[in-house]
Amino acid sequence: MDYTCVLTLNKIKAYLAGAAVVGFDFETSPLDEYRDEDRAALDAHKAAITGVSLSVSQGSGIYIPLRHRIGKNIPKPEAVMAYLKTALFENPAVVKVAHNLAFEAMFLYALDTVVQPPCYDTIAAAQLTLKSNTVFRGLSDSGLKTLVPQLFHVELPDFMTVTGGRFFDELNPQDGETVRYACADSDYALRLYHLFNGWFDKYLPKHRLLVEQVESPTAVYCGLMRYNGLLVDRAAMEVKRAEVKERLAKLREEIAFITGDVEIGANASTSAFKSYLYNDLKLPVLKTTAKYQEAADDEAMILLADWCRENRPELTRLFELVQGYRRWGKIQSTYLDGYLRHINEATGRIHPDLLPLGTETGRFASRNPNLQNMPRKGNDPVGIRSMLVAPEGCVLLSLDFSQIELRVGAFYCRDEKMLQTYREGGDIHAQTTSVIYHIPVEQAADKDNPDYKERRTIAKNCNFGVFFGLFPKGLQRTLKFKAGLDTPLGECEKIISNLKAGYPQLTVWQDVVKRQAAVRRYSETWLGRRRYLPSMASEDWGKRSFAERCAMNTPIQGTAADILKLALARLIVKLPGYPWLRPLLQIHDELVFELPADKVEEAAALIRDCMEAQPFPEFDVPIVAEAAAGPSFGELAEMEAIQ
User: Which of 170, 228, 254, 557 reaches 20 to 30 Å from 198, CA-CA?
Assistant: First the structure.
């Protein structure tokens, strides 16, 4: 290996001269005040870049020590990073390659640098390659120390072996092992770039385009969101936590008055509580678990509550209390305790892990904490969203795709009524109401009609489920447990029959997708993001039926996810010109930003342009991004209302 420690800017320039593709990696160490804190070296608010390694060819690498506490560092490290910013990180003529690009992007963003395309995240590339015939690598399969032994048959030294428990800035940068460890990361990231691209070109060419044009810019954007985080009104959250704790204690007391000394636990789902329901009270088993045990989930509680209202009215109060206890218990554990636990002491903000490849369709996932399951607008009893706030002088700005999955569905199935509704700026839920109930669209959209609310609720649930092969029983269940509507099965059958007759191309598209998936054993998005479905060949009806729904779900949900990520790639290019615009969060089809209050109109126009741009040449359905702004995430007013 030709790995060298470099101490002059001229040698860096000479090494990078003419390079079209460069692997890079950072070694980081905690700042003085955080050296006793676990994992502080991974937090760009508590750590700094100790050194940079670069690789321009296989087996080659240079290490640039910036802030080691022993040995020699390169003079004027700020000048070196300023050079690398223009010559490498923001240079549109060089492909920047890193393993876990979001991490490096976060540390560069702390230095006012936004990594620009072309860039390449080898951890994303790993997750878009197969580890077996039909299974893609997961995040846990994609670490550098896992991939290099598998693919290159080389064992890389682990961090603890090299550092001996010290921080990286306590190692001598002139020591051969220090240089080898640092340079190997950038060298093997570059090797993975060439290896994966060769694999893509041979087996899945469209996945290479996804890595280069979609997932890698998205990784950069994730680094920015991770760095910025969401400011929390901690005092308000503490007050609410105390209130909810008191409410839970009262509910528990009331439940105990009815049940006696039965231990219900934190979620009223203990085996003792189940035994009380089914053995002591002799209630009927209306739902079972996958292992055919008596169920005690929320759905089972709703079914038992309905049964008791008719047959054991004296028990109705118990189920009301249990449902309240569970609801408030989740609010406390998931939102109040959960969010407070993840507030960063250095920033007063929550900095979640955002996983752009956290689902099989390409939609984001989130953890530590999971902000994707934040209470929805209109269903936030303690105001969790209002506790995520903008700092003084700033506002939060949200841009939300309007019905993006339904628009993608219309694009795929080519139903003329759907396409016309969107092209004319119409109301798709009113159109579906019209189709289901054989009434004029004007009547379906009339809010004064006594049937308006129930019909629209049914139409919405049909719209959001019909592309994925909604069955009458599934519709009935959805309406009951999500909308609180008791709709007879016969009526659900009629609704779906009318829907298919009213949107004739929908059924045609579904049949084609299922036939193709049965032959290919996979489904994919418009850009070629593939999801293997081996159960399409299963003799088990349940497994095959689930695979068929996945076959229909993937093109729509996955293409919608790709459209959002393409918008992020456009934003990455624009952001260096708008340093006051801070990306905070992606949640479902929504992007959230923090910015000065006097920049709202300018920012909304910029972001809307990036989101509403035609994602690929064939897409011919208008895309709409709705903007809202306010002092907190729970107090966002539509832009028209604040102009």
Answer: 557
